[in-house]
């Protein structure tokens, strides 16, 4: 609580300092510089959603920024639109184009996405240039500072308007990212497959992320148009888009302070690079600083001389270069490139991440979400209702899954009775995981029918299937590593939210209620699997056995009818396995049906009601554990493969 008040006071001081700046420093140049930094920061808040949270690349944001600037510019120039109309229209139009930009992100990732988004930005720039009947082409558009409520804003008043917009954007983006929407974005980065299987549609949330991000770019663009009082197409070029990306990475992704720091750097950096004298001073100072850090670091044995060699040589080379160069203009992009390389190599978490690591500070989000921490329910697992009413929860018949010539599943029938634990065993490569993937919509079967609760599963998306009541864990743990244990479970509780963007931005009573309930329920589910002590720990830092339990808690958050556990005991110690068995039994007591894939025969034999055995994609036996264990075909299958004969319970 104290840190919360502390941070609030710090924010208040920052806000007051920003407001007072133009009174203290009555120099229009510096006021304009700070105004530009704030406008860029608004854009970077949005870009960070896409880059930092969902983990996508966008080189199209300079284009979106230009689109926002031109929407405002054209509306004012051609129609004399008032300020608020121009701002809202810019946000709307840009958000629409954000959806367009999201389309390629649904199909490609990494360098391909970078190329497509770059093309998008370039096309927007070309269109602005060519459509001179609207945009006045290369001539650009001149604007004046806008009137607000009948009063024409002067330089200083417009600056204050930008301060207010910055603070509003900061609050809104912060709330979005702390909400179920932000968790959905972050989950996409952590594991798209797991997101989908938690009912968080990767498609939908990628589009949302781009749309919201673009909205901020639009707002920033329109403010920029008024701020500069002149817009022309060549501002929104490749250099600017690279600078935006550099700012997010250098400042530190997933951090609002990082965005503001990044904005400051990219506004000041070109100024620095315009003035060769200043650049010489700064590069010499940097070289000295790097050398001092290297010497101290090596003496304190925190780094090796080898690790520091490149930064030291690099910074000395930069200082040398600064004296050799007469003018910087031609070198700007190369220097940005070198900085980008440096950041990617040495500052992967950006400046904010570096400082946090150095000072051993935890990310604010790594703390426990306290809204609901008071009274974790002892038993947060929902009791599965008898949906459909049939005694069979799942019926699969004639399932064929073919990968090229390989039939990973060959004409498999599977009937799972409600409220039972159904074991699925077989040697390595026999098709068990493939069956899980078919049941959860990750693979569409080549042939066959699968019905769950009376509805067919074939052809439905993973998130749709998850929401209809099938939850799963993964053979190779698929947690959202950078999120805390509690947040991982909260992603599973995404389906409990009805709040929309407005609820999140304004913190309506509905959102507060849902958010507190989810935080509380997540703690309850963690308690159910014995992980409440790890609630605030990032998932990637948990021991392997705990990670498997966390996956179960997250899956239970979906309130499933059917829970698919893919080798939950793999890698667990004997006491952990005992705990796991108790947990699975408790899950069954809640009426949840379990399909259990497991190589530990003692686990399978001690708890399963029915066991099905797969071999080379075919079901070779089915029945009660003891009967299956004695089956000659099963023994043959296991002895024929690499595995040992199933051990008696
Ligand atoms: N996407 C895919 N493309 C091609 N082949 C695949 C694919 N997924 C699975 N297979 C193949 O299907 C077969 C069955 O694999 P699956 O992972 O389902 O086996 P499993 O019984 O779960 O084995 P394990 O116990 O090792 O996890 C294997 O031969 C595997 O190589």
Automatic annotation (TrEMBL):
Localization (cell): Cell membrane
Keyword Transmembrane helix annotated: yes
Alphabetical list of SMART domains matching this protein: AAA (SM00382)
Alphabetical keyword list: ATP-binding, Cell membrane, Membrane, Nucleotide-binding, Transmembrane, Transmembrane helix
Broad class of the protein's primary localization: membrane
Keyword Cell membrane: yes
The organism's place on the tree of life at top rank: Bacteria
A molecular function (GO) term: ATP binding
Residues annotated as domain ABC transporter: 394-641
Membrane topology of the entry: Multi-pass membrane protein
Transmembrane region(s): 7-25, 31-51, 58-77, 83-103, 110-128, 158-177, 207-227, 279-296, 308-325, 331-355
Protein name from the UniProt record: Branched-chain amino acid ABC transporter ATP-binding protein/permease
């Amino acid at each position: 609580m104290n840190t919360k008040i502390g941070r609030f006071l710090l924010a208040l001081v920052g806000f007051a300092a920003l407001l007072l700046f133009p009174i203290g420093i009555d120099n229009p140049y510096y006021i304009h510089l700070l105004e530009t930094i704030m406008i860029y920061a608004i854009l970077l808040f949005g870009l960070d959603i896409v880059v930092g949270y969902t983990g996508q690349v966008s080189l199209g944001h300079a284009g979106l920024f230009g689109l926002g600037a031109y929407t405002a510019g054209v509306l004012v120039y051609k129609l004399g639109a008032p300020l608020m109309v121009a701002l809202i229209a810019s946000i709307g139009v840009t958000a629409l184009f954000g959806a367009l930009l999201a389309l390629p992100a649904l199909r490609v990732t990494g360098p391909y996405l970078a190329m497509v988004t770059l093309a998008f930005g370039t096309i927007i720039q070309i269109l602005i240039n060519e459509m001179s009947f609207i945009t006045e082409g290369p001539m650009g558009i001149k604007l004046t500072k806008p009137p607000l409520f009948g009063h024409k804003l002067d330089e200083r008043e417009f600056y204050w308007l930008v301060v207010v917009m910055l603070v509003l954007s900061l609050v809104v983006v912060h709330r979005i990212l702390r909400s179920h929407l932000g968790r959905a974005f972050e989950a996409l980065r952590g594991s798209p497959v797991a997101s989908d299987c938690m009912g968080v549609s990767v498609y939908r949330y990628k589009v949302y992320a781009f749309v919201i991000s673009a909205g901020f770019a639009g707002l920033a663009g329109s403010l920029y148009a008024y701020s500069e009082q002149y817009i022309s197409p060549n501002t929104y070029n490749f250099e600017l888009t690279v600078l935006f990306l550099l700012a997010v990475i250098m400042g530190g992704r997933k951090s609002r302070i990082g965005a503001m720091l990044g904005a400051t750097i990219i506004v000041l950096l070109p100024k620095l690079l315009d003035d060769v004298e200043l650049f010489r001073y700064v590069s010499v100072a940097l070289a000295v600083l790097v050398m001092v850090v290297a010497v101290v670091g090596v003496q304190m044995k925190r780094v090796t001389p080898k690790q520091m060699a490149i930064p030291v040589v690099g910074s000395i080379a930069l200082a040398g270069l600064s004296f050799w160069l007469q003018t910087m203009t031609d070198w700007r992009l190369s220097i940005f490139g070198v900085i980008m390389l440096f950041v990617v190599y040495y500052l992967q978490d950006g400046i904010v991440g570096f400082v946090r690591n150095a000072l051993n500070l935890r990310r604010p989000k790594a703390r426990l979400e306290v809204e609901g921490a008071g009274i974790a329910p002892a038993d947060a697992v929902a009791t599965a209702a008898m949906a459909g009413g049939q005694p069979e929860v799942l019926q699969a018949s004639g399932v064929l899954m073919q990968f090229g010539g390989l039939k990973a599943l060959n004409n498999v029938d599977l009937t799972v009775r409600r409220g039972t634990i159904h074991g699925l065993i077989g040697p390595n490569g026999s098709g068990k995981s493939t069956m899980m993937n078919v049941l959860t919509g990750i693979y569409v079967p080549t042939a066959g029918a699968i019905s769950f609760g009376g509805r067919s599963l074939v052809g439905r998306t993973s998130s749709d299937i998850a929401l209809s009541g099938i939850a799963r864990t993964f053979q190779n743990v698929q947690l959202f590593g950078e999120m805390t244990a509690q947040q991982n479970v909260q992603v599973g509780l995404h389906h409990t939210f009805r709040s929309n963007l407005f609820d999140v931005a304004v913190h309506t009573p509905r959102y507060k209620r849902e958010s507190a309930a989810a935080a509380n329920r997540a703690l309850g589910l963690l308690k159910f699997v014995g992980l409440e002590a790890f609630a605030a720990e990032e998932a990637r830092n948990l021991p392997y056995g705990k990670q498997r339990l966390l996956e179960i808690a997250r899956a239970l958050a979906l309130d499933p009818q059917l829970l698919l556990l893919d080798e939950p005991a793999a890698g667990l110690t004997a006491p952990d396995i005992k705990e796991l068995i108790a947990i699975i039994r408790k899950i069954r007591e809640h009426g949840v049906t379990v399909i259990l894939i497991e190589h530990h025969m003692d686990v399978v034999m001690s708890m399963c009601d029915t066991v099905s055995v797969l071999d080379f994609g075919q079901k070779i036996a089915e029945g009660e554990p003891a009967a299956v264990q004695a089956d000659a075909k099963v023994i043959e299958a296991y002895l024929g493969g690499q595995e040992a004969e199933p051990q008696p319970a």
